[in-house]
């Protein structure tokens, strides 16, 4: 199955939720009550208040807003405009222009698929002939180091690790030293999942970024925030806090398959203007792909 088909399949529940919102107009006409219902249902679909407000303004100015087809056309163009503004160039192009090593710091809360996302990215870089190094900066979760080492063995990428409970900043320091000594192209650093509301853990993340900046000019070159699409508006709250704490430069949105809340990507893009780098719709390595706004919107509105 090709990527576009997997993306379309993964967005089925989100697509159905959006379509159900629009279908309520059938036979009712664009009365104020109907438009209020539509607005509320689209907000409930996690598209974000700012985007829905912009859509409602365009809808009221447009012709043919009494038909589901007309409404969908206006909604589709509104979402596409929002997402195209946050379409990012592939990481590979950033890596090509940067000095070595290029440092990617993965951040996020517990259970979002951060370690797996980082490993899949390392696998992709290895397939492209780039020499990568994984750094096990999550020293708190019992199985985190072993999980990363399993991935490293599977994809042929070395892992720098310390013992469970070690200082993550020390692991990062050793990882950078190893990368310099081995002529590594890309360093991918896993970090412990942390709630965005825990100030002590966020302070620890700041410490890691200070070590990176001191040891490698410009590092971290990419702060990749992994978000779980299934949590809806909580993902927006997480993105805001991490952005304020460590200056997130890119987002990887995982678990789009099987959720009706994939519209949260629109709310995040509209409110925070953070580039969306990667989206994931499954467990396989090929199920993590670069984000393209038009592909996403087409899959959101039309089944493949």
Secondary-structure map with pairings?
Blueprint: H1 3-10, H2 12-23, H3 32-44, H4 49-61, H5 68-84, H6 91-97, E1 102-107, H7 114-127, E2 132-137, H8 144-155, E3 158-160, H9 168-182, E4 186-191, H10 199-215, E5 222-228, H11 233-246, E6 250-254, H12 264-272, E7 276-280, E8 288-290, H13 293-301
Helix pairs in contact: 1-13, 2-3, 3-4, 4-5, 5-13, 7-8, 9-10, 11-12
Description:
With 304 residues, the protein is an alpha/beta fold. It is 53% helix and 13% strand. The protein contains 13 helices and eight strands. It has an eight-stranded mixed β-sheet, with helices on both faces. The radius of gyration is 21 Å and the shape is elongated.
Tags for this model:
alpha/beta; 304 residues
Strand % is 5-15%
Order of helices and strands: HHHHHHEHEHEHEHEHEHEEH
Biggest sheet descriptor: 8 strands, mixed
Rg over CA atoms, rounded to whole Å, is: 21 Å
**Apparent shape:** elongated
Terminal CA distance: 11 Å
- Overall SS class: alpha/beta
Number of helices: 13
Strand order of the largest sheet: 3-2-4-1-5-6-7-8
In short:
The protein has helices spanning 3-10, 12-23, 32-44, 49-61, 68-84, 91-97, 114-127, 144-155, 168-182, 199-215, 233-246, 264-272, 293-301; strands spanning 102-107, 132-137, 158-160, 186-191, 222-228, 250-254, 276-280, 288-290. It is α/β, with parallel strands linked by helices.
């Amino acid at each position: 199955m090709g990527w576009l088909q997997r993306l379309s399949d993964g967005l089925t529940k989100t697509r159905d939720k959006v379509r159900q919102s629009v279908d309520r107009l059938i036979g009712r006409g664009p009365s104020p009550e109907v438009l209020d219902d539509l607005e509320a249902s689209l907000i409930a679909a996690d598209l974000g208040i700012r985007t829905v407000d912009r859509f409602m303004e365009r809808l009221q100015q447009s012709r043919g807003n009494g038909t589901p087809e007309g409404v969908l056309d206006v909604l589709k163009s509104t979402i596409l405009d929002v997402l195209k503004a946050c379409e990012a160039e592939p990481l590979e192009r950033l890596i090509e222009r940067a000095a070595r090593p290029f440092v990617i710091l993965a951040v996020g809360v517990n259970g979002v698929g951060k370690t797996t996302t980082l490993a899949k990215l390392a696998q992709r870089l290895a397939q492209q002939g780039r020499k990568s190094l994984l750094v096990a900066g999550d020293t708190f979760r019992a199985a985190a180091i072993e999980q990363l080492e399993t991935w490293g063995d599977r994809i042929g990428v070395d892992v720098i690790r310390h013992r469970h409970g070690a200082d993550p900043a020390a692991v990062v320091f050793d990882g950078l030293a190893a990368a310099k000594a081995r002529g590594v192209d890309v360093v991918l650093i896993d970090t412990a999942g942390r709630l965005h509301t825990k100030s002590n853990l966020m302070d620890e993340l700041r410490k890691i970024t200070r070590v990176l900046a001191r040891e490698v000019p410009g590092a971290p070159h990419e702060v990749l925030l992994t978000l779980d699409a299934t949590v809806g508006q909580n993902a927006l709250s997480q993105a805001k806090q991490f952005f304020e704490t460590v200056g997130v430069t890119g987002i990887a949105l995982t678990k789009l398959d099987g959720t009706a809340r994939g519209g949260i990507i629109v709310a995040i893009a509209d409110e925070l203007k953070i580039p969306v780098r990667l989206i994931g719709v499954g467990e396989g390595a090929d199920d993590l792909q670069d984000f393209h706004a038009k592909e996403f919107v087409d899959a959101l509105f039309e089944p493949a």
